Amino acid sequence: MTGRDRDPAPPPGPSGLPVGDLLVAEPITLELGVPAVALAVGAHPDDIEFGAGATLAKWAAAGCRVHHLVLTDGSKGSWDPDADLADLVTERRDECRAAAAVIDGADGGRQREDRVIFLPWIDGELENGADQRREIARVIRLVRPVILLGHDPWRRYRLHPDHRAAGFITLDGLVAARDHHFFPELGLAHHRPDAVLLWEADLPNHVEKANGFELTKVDALLCHRSQLESTMGVDPAAPPDEATGERDGFAAKVRHQLASHGSLAGQPSAEAFRLITDL
């Protein structure tokens, strides 16, 4: 498929769901197979679910050990000018843990300490510096993912600086993690994943089927209750019937995005990525 894949005009979507035309690269590959370990790196507490929620849920259901790494504290994620930011950070971390449990299950009733890893950088102020690259390299060397997932830093016209920075930090941290002589003070053996998948890809060349995991993605996203109004178009104070309609509308937008991505490879439902294997 060349040029732009054109779908019927989507319904207006929240900022977390880009659903417009996709530039695509040839050839489009399909399905990597289930990795033993996956590490997904998001700038904010809900980015991983938006970018790869269905893929991670599918892999987790097949036995993959999924790790979620969140780079910022989410402290800008409120429209309330009087919000208590310390409480907001705590709330967003709790939401993130709940979403991760939806994505990859209860782990036999245990709560893995490394299921969700939080780094302390301030929302909106993320920078790609040596300290950031060292931390990403440390986590990669610790959890040793077969597949690393994150933001595509090259997506054109991307507005949020944290998304750009998170993509570059992830890839630069990977380069450091794979080579012996970066950050030897960590005392950890180098590690090179087999592949990288970048979500919200500027030029996608790979899709992962989402069939059967659409609702899991939606349910995980709806765990981020502090973001319902600002990101998902759901008024948490609305009457029950109205709130249900708004949640259904959000779920329809998610399904539309998955259908749009799936159409790149003739699939009914999928998540699209930029796949990099030359690591």
Describe the structure.
- The chain is α/β, with parallel strands linked by helices and 279 residues long.
- The protein has a single domain (27-276), classed as LmbE-like (Rossmann fold, 3-Layer(aba) Sandwich).
- The chain is 37% helix and 17% strand.
- The strands form 2 sheets. It has an 8-stranded mixed sheet with strand order 3-9-10-8-7-4-5-6, sandwiched between helices. A two-stranded antiparallel ribbon has the order 1-2.
- Strand 5, helix 2 (85-104) and strand 6 (116-121) form a beta-alpha-beta unit.
- Helix 1 runs parallel beside helix 2 and helix 3 crosses helix 4.
- The longest helix has 23 residues, at 240-262.
Mean pLDDT score: 90
Largest sheet: 8 strands, mixed
Name the CATH superfamily assignment. LmbE-like
**SSE class:** alpha/beta
CATH-derived topology: Rossmann fold
Main sheet: strand order: 3-9-10-8-7-4-5-6
User: Helix tally?
Assistant: 7
DSSP, total strands: 10
Q: What are the secondary-structure elements, in order, as H or E?
A: EEEEHEHEHEHEEHHHE
Fraction of residues in H or I helices? 25-40%
CA-CA gap between termini: 26 Å
Poorly predicted runs: 1-16
Percentage of residues in strands: 15-25%
CATH class: Alpha Beta
Rg, nearest Å = 18 Å
Q: What is the CATH architecture annotation?
A: 3-Layer(aba) Sandwich
General shape: globular
Count of spatially separate domains: 1
